[in-house]
User: Which sequence fits this backbone?
């Protein structure tokens, strides 16, 4: 399975993601510069974390105009997999591939921590390596991670089972309903604030994130 890791000016988790897909999982992986307009060779697009365009305007607000994003939208519309991690999640909401916004953290501070998360659903490629209700631990590192949306969209997200990860115990950033990660209604696009790629190598003491990437490689369950 070939992974494409997008690189914007200011991305800083691109190599960490490639380390997981290429070095830990032995999958072909291409770094995709944001001006690239042909991603037809890619199976799974990953939009990594970082500070694309220095977070000017709003996190992800400028990156979503990069030429590659037209191709990412088409890729998603064909039902192919797209994962946005942290800044990548912000880019996906700005691009309209996922609903809602990521607003400034409630305490107005940049938060860098390791947090418990509850896995809400496991019948999608992203979470099939976990059990439903399992509590995992992943790192977070963001200034704008407070998931927010209008009431009816929030109700739809909950009713459709689009919330895949929820903060457990404390709500680190004030996200509505403790939301840490959501997918689109079809399930092929996932955005999450926590960083699975930073918890993928047992040398770092936690490999809860590796199971997410391994899940992608498994036989993909039928998407809605
Ligand atoms: N780690 C990240 O991707 C950070 C995302 C973004 N720059 C923020 O601070 O919210």
Assistant:
């Amino acid at each position: 399975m070939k992974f494409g890791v997008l690189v914007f000016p200011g991305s800083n988790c691109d190599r960490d993601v490639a380390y997981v897909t290429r070095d830990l999982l032995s999958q072909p992986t291409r770094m995709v510069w944001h001006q690239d307009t042909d991603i037809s060779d890619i199976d799974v697009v990953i939009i990594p974390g970082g500070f694309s365009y220095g977070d000017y305007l709003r996190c992800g607000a400028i990156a979503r105009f990069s030429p590659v994003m037209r191709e990412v939208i088409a890729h998603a519309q064909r039902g192919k997999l797209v994962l946005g991690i942290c800044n990548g999640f912000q880019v996906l909401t700005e691009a309209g591939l996922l609903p809602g916004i990521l607003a400034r953290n409630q305490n107005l501070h940049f938060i860098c921590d390791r947090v418990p998360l509850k896995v809400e659903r496991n019948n999608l490629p992203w979470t099939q390596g976990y059990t439903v209700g399992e509590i995992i631990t992943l790192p977070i590192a963001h200034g704008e991670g407070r998931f927010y949306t209008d009431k009816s969209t929030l109700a739809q997200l909950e009713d459709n089972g689009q919330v895949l990860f929820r903060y457990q115990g404390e709500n680190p950033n004030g996200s509505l309903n403790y939301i840490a990660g959501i997918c689109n209604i079809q399930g092929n696009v996932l955005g999450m604030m926590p960083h699975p790629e930073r918890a993928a190598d047992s040398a770092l003491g936690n490999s809860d994130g590796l199971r997410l990437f391994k899940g992608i490689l498994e036989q993909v369950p039928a998407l809605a």
